[in-house]
Each structure stands twice: as C-alpha cells, then as structure tokens.
Amino acid sequence: MSDLLTQLANLLGDKGFLQGDALRDHPACAFVIPRGLIRPASTEELSQAMKLCHSAGQSVVPQGGRTGLVSGQCAQTDEIIISLERMNNIQSIDTRSRTMRVEAGVPLQQVQECAEERDLMFPLDLGARGTATIGGNLSTNAGGNRVVRYGMARDMVLGLEAVLADGTVISSMKSVIKNNTGYDLKQLFIGSEGTLGIITRAVLRLRPKFRSQNTALVAVSSFEQVTELLGRADSALGGSMSSFEVMWNSFYSCITQHSDKHRLPLPVDYPYYVIIEAMGGDIAADDERFHAAMEDLFESGLVADAVLAKSTSEREAIWAIRDDMEAIYALYPLFAFDVSVPLPDMEAYVADIETQINAQWPDNRLIIFGHLGDGNIHVVVAVGSDAPEVKQAVENIVYGALRERHGVISAEHGIGQEKKRHLAISRSDAEIALMRTLKLAMDPTGILNPGKVIDIACA
Amino acid sequence: MSDLLTQLANLLGDKGFLQGDALRDHPACAFVIPRGLIRPASTEELSQAMKLCHSAGQSVVPQGGRTGLVSGQCAQTDEIIISLERMNNIQSIDTRSRTMRVEAGVPLQQVQECAEERDLMFPLDLGARGTATIGGNLSTNAGGNRVVRYGMARDMVLGLEAVLADGTVISSMKSVIKNNTGYDLKQLFIGSEGTLGIITRAVLRLRPKFRSQNTALVAVSSFEQVTELLGRADSALGGSMSSFEVMWNSFYSCITQHSDKHRLPLPVDYPYYVIIEAMGGDIAADDERFHAAMEDLFESGLVADAVLAKSTSEREAIWAIRDDMEAIYALYPLFAFDVSVPLPDMEAYVADIETQINAQWPDNRLIIFGHLGDGNIHVVVAVGSDAPEVKQAVENIVYGALRERHGVISAEHGIGQEKKRHLAISRSDAEIALMRTLKLAMDPTGILNPGKVIDIACA
Asked: Which of A122, A204, B32, B336 could bridge A115 with an S-S bond, Cβ 3.0-4.6 Å?
C-alpha cells in the first residue's frame, strides 16, 4: 500500500476513503476499479485530501451523480475518484432573499422539492433529476427544458465554493444577486467539468413558484414559420413562456409508430410540432392570455393545427411524447448529438446533414428534436452500425456541417472525453490556448480530471 | 520621441494614434495628458498595437464612454489610453435569432434604439446610456433598473471578442444561447474592468419588445412588509415584473423638499416607497393582471397607500422622482455608495450605519434608495465635509458593517481604483490570490489597466 493511500485512509477513515475490496460494490467503480475513492464529509476534509493528492502528484476524478453523457466522470485504474455523495445536505433555505445553500452532493430533485415546499422554485430541470447532483449540474453547466426563460445552471447560482488542485478553498458563498467586486471566480468552476476545481457548495437563486401552467402542442408547416412562431409567442406571452420545444416529423412519427401508448393529439402528417408552455402567477389572467395568444397565432396562419391541454393529464400526455426516449432507443445502434446552430442557419444545417447521411447510408433514420427556443437540437442518427469507423464518419458529417454555420458541438452536455477530438470545430486555436493557460495556472501538475475537455502537456 | 510612439504612429496613422499637442483637445485627456492615445479602427489594428505595447512593456488603459464611477478608466502620464471610439459600428442585427453584433465603442443608447426599430429590446438600461459604450458596460458588468428581470450585462452576451495583453485575439463571436464547449472564456473579460483583456466586439442577446408597461408607486409601513411585497409582487406578476425600486423616506422627502418640480403622488410621511413596474406582451391582459395584483396587495394590508400610473406622463412623473439626482447632489459634499446586502440583513444593516453615523456626525444626511429587487442599495452620506480623513471614516462605517452581514462593497459599479483598498471586505485572501493568479497568467507583465481592481507585484 502506498504512502498516499495510507495517508488518505488515516485522514478520512473508513467511510471517507475506500480502497481495495471496499471499492467493488460501489457504483462509482462499476466499470473501472480506481486506486481509491475519496468520500469527503466536508469541504475541509476534501481540502486536506487534495493537499495529499497534490503532493503525491495523484490524479483525481470528481463525480456527482454520474449521469453525464460525455464520459467526463470516467476514471482510469491509476486515478482516485472523488465522490461528493456524503456532502448531501441542504444547509439552509431563506424565503425572503429566496436563496438556498446546498452541498454539492444533493440530488437536483431534492433541491427542487425543498424549494417547492416553501412555495418557491429552482427552475433547472432535466430527465436525470433524481440522480444527478447539483454539484454535477453546476460543473457541467446543465441546461434542460426551461432555459428559454430561466437560463442555464450558470444563471441560477449566486455563490459558490470550490477546492483547487492544491487544496486551497475558494469560498464565494455570497447570497446577493449583484456582486461586482473583482473577477467573478465562480464562472471558472461552472461548466469546466471538474478540471479547474471541485465544487463543494453553492448558494442557489430561487424563483417564485408558478401558479398557472398552460401547454399547447401546435403543428407548423415550415421551418420559417417555426422561427416566426418562436418570436411571436415569446412576445405575446410577455416573459411567461417557459418552454418552446420542437419535434421534427421524424421524431413525432417515430414515437407514435413505436407503440400505441400515446393518444395522438395531432395527426402525423405535419413537418414540425411545437410544445409551447407558459408559467405564471395568476391562473385566470394567464389562462386568458395564453388562449388569446394561441388564437392570434392560429389566425395569423402560422399554426396549421393545435391542441391546448385542458387538464394536467392532457399536459402530461403532450410531454410524454417529447420525453419518450424508449422509441428512440429502439433504433439502437444509434449516435446521439447535442448541437446548437444559429436559428437562421438551422434549416439548411439539417438539410445538409440529411443529404450527406442519405448519400452514405440510404437506409438510415435521422431524428431531430430539441430546445429550439435556445437554438439547441438533439440529432439522433441510426445507420445500422455503431462501429468506430461508422461513428467517426457520422460525427464528421454532423459536426463538420456546424463549422461554417458557427454552430457548437455541445449545447448542454459538455465536452468530457467524448467530444474533445472535435473541440476545434467550435473553438479557435487562440481560445484553446487560453483554456490551456488557465488550466496550467490553476492546476499546474494537471491532477484535476486529466484528459477531459482539453489535453495539456504536463503531469 | 520613443521608438514605441513612432511605431504606433506608423502603424495607426494620424487618426489611429494621437500624441503630443493632438491630445490636448481630446476628452480622454481632460484630467491627465497620457503618453498617447490609441484609437483603433479594427480588432486587428488593436491587436498589432498591443503587440508593440507588450514588447515595450508599455502600460495601457482601455476606455469606453468614461462614465464609470470608480476611476477604472483613469490613466497616468506614463500610460497610453486605448479608446474604442472609432470601433462604433453595429455590424448586424438578426431578428430571427434575436441577436446583434456590435463593436465595443457603440453607445448603449444606440444599441437600444437599433433593437427597438426592429421591434426588439436590449434590456440593459442606465442613466449614462447616451455616453456609456457597450464595451464599457460589458467590461464593468453594468447593472441598472431592470436587473430583477433580465440580469446584469453579463447575462445579455452570447459571444465576445477581446484582445489580450500580448495582442492575441480571443474571438468567441458565437450567436447561440447554449454553448458548453469548454471554458466559458467570455466570463473572464466581462466585469474584469479591462485588466485581463480589451473587449472589442460582442454578440448581444435581444428580447421581444414589450407592448404593455404598468407602473405603480406604493407606500409601505415597514421593511419587513417591503420584502414580503417583493416576493408577492414577483409571484403575482408571473415573470413580468421588470423593476422593484425602493426609496427610503429619507430619499423621497429629500427629493420633494428640494424643489416643487414634482407633483407629489403620495404624502411624505411613509417610511418606504416602492416603484413596481411590469412589462408584457398583451396590453389588455397585462393591465388587468397588474391591477388585480395591486388590488390583492392592497387588500392584504402590505401596501399602505398606492397610485397607479394611468398615462405615460404619470409614469414619467413617478420615475422622475427616482431619477432626480439633482436634489441629492445639492447636499454636496457627499459620499455615495453602491452596496449589496442579503435582504434578511438589510434593515439591520441600515440601522447599524445610521447609528454609527449619527454618533459621529449628529448633523448628517443619510439617504437610501436603490434596486431592492436585487438586494442592491445606494447609500448617500453627507456630513458637511469630504476631507480624506472624513471619507475614510465614513467608508469604514458603510463598508465595515457589510463584513459580518456578507454584503458586498460594489453591487454594480465595480472596484476600479476607488474601492480597491476595501476589496478584502467582500473577498477572501484565497479569492484575491486566485485573482492574482489569473491576472499573472493572462497579463504576466501587468500592462493592462495597472492598479485597477487588484495590485500585483510585477511590471
């Protein structure tokens, strides 16, 4: 047993540091058995542990709920995993300043529920809410279904605490909305996927809980009309629009063909389907405004067909179509992408990749849906194989077509290991060089989540 | 004439580089005549000029509209000023993706007007809008009257371009809302007051132009009721509340006593006055909702008295009270502060500084108002002198009382030179050390806006 492992065991005890056989049953080690697993009970414990790792030149991989989609949380056998699972307390909630202090290991859903019990809302929402932790959400700058109104995870944080590679604790746990006192250091840790520091605590900004919720599924005949609909709906709903989700016909028909579990709110022969949802504070007035806006849009000719949810179960039935990934997974083997494209270029982008994929694999399935209100679509490509050379060819098409259109290869999932090879499509050499400068300044020996986001020539 | 000045003159020409007598009439040199003034016509010109300055170890001071309040734009005689005044073009506006590409030297008001002509809105708004430039707004992360709804300047930027100390151009001019492709480098330049790079261009996010605007001035009897009002109004107005501005009685009575130019919408004997404003997309429905919300608040007993603006001129009369700085300046000599305090601690904070100021200067004026929806208040203290030792004593009270309450010494104005001495009240030693690490990594010879925000031991 090495000196470092002994030191960590002495520092953290049996609950705080797992090694050897104790690792086998831990979900963090399901795929790879690392050198050890640090489970700190406090920021101070993590700080001490990082000092030891730093001295020993030991690489570490921070983990939240392990629901990331780009292998940012994956460790090697010679690395030590750091799981924040024991730092899972909501430390306080203040209803007057509408803030919540949380440890990084709290699952997102618990944050949401704690806010709701106080008649408040934490707006971040995504499918993995039960498992994903707030620390993971922040370190990856998670997105989700309500970005069009509330922004990304980055926009919901007032204060942050992180531990640097050398164990230094950077604690900026302020609960104020406005803070122009020097560099906004929390931005370094949000979205950098654990490569610049390990997020340990945060002060989250909460919002008033909505009282009204109105949902419509509308069919649209052209992409140009979809983009016009976005602008007009956002304007007419005056700040209350919380979702603008688009399903291409390929998605809608795939879902409804796969099983008969969905009641079909609209026929399958339209090119685009949009879920428009608004949330507000006055049930009667909001209902009226939503109906008036929908009526206007219908009369303007932008909407070919529409249904408005008249009950919670009707709303859930609409969302169940959007959220039914089972029908998509049934196309396995497949490749899934998460890209942003400027709206004016979106239609041409989709046509471009469709043409290229059809040319190479005539018998393909190309399925598109996503958060169009944010310019973010998910692209699913199934060509009958997931062999590495096929993957590379598909990636070259889907990512390559982004370059000239100034799109980005990862809208919300991050880079991790999966997309590192393609980073230069979305970022210039100068940008990547500056990322390296930052990485080297903050983690000169490269022990923090090595090989993720960017490669550096050290340690 | 030094080699550097000759090189800059050759590179930039008469319009691009001023020196000697040519400096005397330029407003940038009103207080100090610097070594020279660089006025680049393009990012590339600035990049070349910075390469020369970097090689020569020449310090530079970037300037926007010079409306900053913390001397972040002030230069010394041995420094060169960089003014972005010739990079003042709106390069494009896209109504579908609702984005605008601008050069840094465009005045804020021009951005606002250009958006409005297209039925869109750039939500940042502040008093200096006619002079302040978008580059200055971004480099200082400006706030203003609508932060409660739209956030700070930081939240309105999709893409950014900046020139580093060594002339490297970091161009991240993406126009997509979601971009999780590695470190979010633009955050380094926003709010760092020109000490990490010089912002040259930006892609701004626009919003739908509001159609409805409802404004109320309400009187409230206790601070506890003010904070409850904030939560309830925000909730009832369902995302449409765009301002929640509070005037303490000291402010309201000062303004109305100073001149008879204001019609008095409410008597002067209430402790707090709040301007609540909402903006939306449906005139009839929004009016109805606003009136219903106000009626509810009145019936709940939270509101002691209220007037609702029934016309544009009534709205303007209400805002004229809030914006009348003339009455405040009449108290000269005075000290003005811009602090954030967590809402639950705000009342005690104000009582604390009032007690301390009364004890030391019985014949004082203490006037408080601000963006309470953001926890940000402006504090004006007049004690009959602005001598340096008096200034220091007042600062020690106003800033000192923030420390234990986790307030911040600058909510929106920044640090510059003015507040550098007090930075440690709001930031820990570890935070300040990390700021130095970043500064040294990105500007190792310390030529970018030296002496602002933090001091470093170099150059």
From this structure: A122
